[in-house]
Amino acid sequence: MITCPECEGRVAAPEEPRVHEIVECAECRSELEVVGLDPLLVALAPEVEEDWGE
Fold first, then answer.
1. Of the residues 21, 40, 45, 48, which has the maximum number of CB atoms within 10 A of its CB?
2. Residue-wise pLDDT tens for the chain (54 aa)?
3. Rounded to two decimals, what is the model's pTM?
4. CA distance 24 to 40
5. What's the alpha-carbon Rg for the chain, to the nearest Å?
6. Strands 22-24 vs 10-11: parallel, antiparallel or unpaired
7. Three-state DSSP class for 32?
């Protein structure tokens, strides 16, 4: 389990986490991005911007 940085709720960690993987907090529905693996760290995922994918 990891802690949501937005609401401090408990989030189930992915079985095989990868950096940049997105997980969702079940309590506040925030999208969280895996930013570190040892230890497992998450941060709020960046919002999709208009020029992404150009």
1. 45
2. 899 999 999 999 999 999 999 999 999 999 999 999 999 999 999 887 666 556
3. 0.80
4. 15
5. 12
6. unpaired
7. strand
